[in-house]
Design brief:
This protein has 408 residues and is mainly α. The protein folds into three domains: 58 residues, no CATH class; 166 residues, P-loop containing nucleotide triphosphate hydrolases (Rossmann fold); 156 residues, Four Helix Bundle (Hemerythrin (Met), subunit A), CATH 1.20.120.1240. Helices cover 54% and strands 6% of the residues. Helix 4 links the parallel strand 4 and strand 5. Helix 9 runs antiparallel to helix 12. The N and C termini lie far apart (96 Å). One of its GO terms (cellular component) is plasma membrane. This is DYN3 protein.
Length: 408
């Protein structure tokens, strides 16, 4: 008879190599690391504490323990603590490959559950949400959560699972997990409202459900994952065949590589102007977005800044009309300004647009040159090519700038 003894232990990512076999020390290390990251006065941080537990008594699962919504800031918490925690939670539960455990105390109104509200925002169909009801042993006498656990009150596609965790008194009294699980089992078997569903309640059942979901997910995604790997393998094998007889000094390969880099530069430049690039600048406007802003915001702003004196314009119109009549008497004959007078006045007003137009041309051309410089960064490993490409394209842009100004 061969007996294999497996000692339970835990490891933290922030202190690799150290194995914790005393889980009281694990709890203390979590508290110490929390204080180190967030301070000693109820601060918060989005930096996770990574803990891995090795045991023959647990199932393979990755759990992320997220904080509950805090409505009123206390201690060192910032005024926008509620929004910060909400953003932190959404960062995780928005991922399509995670299950959401919407934990709600049984002694509160389920309709006001923050957990269920957030889960519904990212998972409106309820495909990834499992309701977990805690504190069933703390409900007022004569009340129970039977309708909730039977999925009748606020139905969820995956239903609800009730659990009874250790109280703070149990934790302070060093009540171990095994004893807590036995007490939880006894609670469900003895409670008149829950005994008929005791086999579908409790922490062990929740573990099995989560493990089964993990297994189902692996089974569903494995074929697609295998196909993707096979496709990548075939692609790599094809590249290996192409480069098997590679000769670095072959001039045709150098020419081909040069053309590919120039074509890539052209594609990158076009994407930055159209806004369909693979890298999106989140710090400032650039490329096509900035040019669009120049045309639709900056140019109209410059026009609005132009001074306009209606009294002076009327005086100029009057002089223009009189001047085109010469020695003849000016006799009002209609509602319209004579053509020659109209053209003279309009030409003089259009000339005023030249300044804002030229300024907009300068701004657009400068942004085009900046875009060229950003695109040539990918050619940095070939300084001469980078320099020549930038010189040729920038020269062409400046040539077009001069022609545009001449047209203006």
């Amino acid at each position: 008879l061969l007996l294999v003894f497996f000692t339970e232990y835990a490891e933290f990512l922030h202190c690799k190599g150290r194995k914790f076999t005393d889980f009281d020390e694990v709890r203390q290390e979590i508290e110490v690391e929390t204080d180190r990251i967030t301070g000693m006065n109820k601060g918060i941080s989005s930096i996770p504490i990574n803990l891995r537990i090795y045991s023959p008594h647990v199932l393979s699962l990755t759990l992320i323990d997220l904080p509950g919504i805090t409505k009123v800031p206390v201690g060192d918490q910032p005024p926008d603590i509620e929004q910060q925690i909400r953003d932190m939670i959404m960062q995780f539960i928005s991922r399509e490959n995670c299950l959401i455990l919407a934990v709600t105390p049984a002694n509160t109104d389920l309709a006001n559950s923050d957990a269920l509200k957030l889960a519904k925002e990212v998972d409106p169909q309820g495909l990834r949400t499992i309701g977990v009801i805690t504190k069933l042993d703390l409900m007022d006498e004569g009340t129970d959560a039977r309708e909730i656990l039977e999925n009748k009150l606020l139905p969820l596609r995956r239903g609800y699972i009730g659990v009874v965790n250790r109280s703070q008194k149990d934790i302070d009294g060093k009540k171990d997990i095994k004893a807590a699980l036995l007490a939880e089992r006894k609670f469900f078997l003895s409670h008149p409202a829950y005994r008929h569903m005791a086999d579908r309640m409790g922490t062990p059942y929740l573990q099995k459900v989560l493990n089964q979901q993990l297994t189902n997910h692996i089974r569903d995604t494995l074929p697609a994952f295998r196909s993707k790997l096979q496709g990548q393998l075939l692609s790599i094998e094809h590249e290996v065949e192409v480069y098997k007889n590679f000769r670095p000094e072959d001039p045709t390969r150098k020419t081909k590589a040069l053309l590919q880099m120039v074509q890539q530069f052209s594609v990158d430049f076009e994407k930055r102007i159209e806004g369909s690039g693979d890298q999106v600048d989140t710090l400032e406007l650039s490329g096509g977005a900035k040019i669009n802003r120049i045309f639709h915001e900056r140019f109209p702003f410059e026009l609005v800044k132009m001074e306009f004196n209606e009294k002076e314009l009327r005086r100029e119109i009057s002089y223009a009309i009189k001047n085109i009549h010469g020695i003849r008497q000016v006799i009002p004959t209609g509602l319209f300004t004579p053509d020659m007078a109209f053209e003279a006045i309009v030409k003089k007003q259009i000339v005023k647009l030249k300044g804002p137009c030229l300024k907009s041309v300068d701004l657009v051309m400068q942004e085009l040159i900046n875009t060229v410089k950003k695109c040539t960064k990918k050619l940095a490993t070939y300084p001469r090519l980078c320099e020549e490409t930038e010189r040729i394209v920038a020269g062409y842009i400046r040539e077009r700038e001069e022609k545009t100004k001449d047209q203006v």
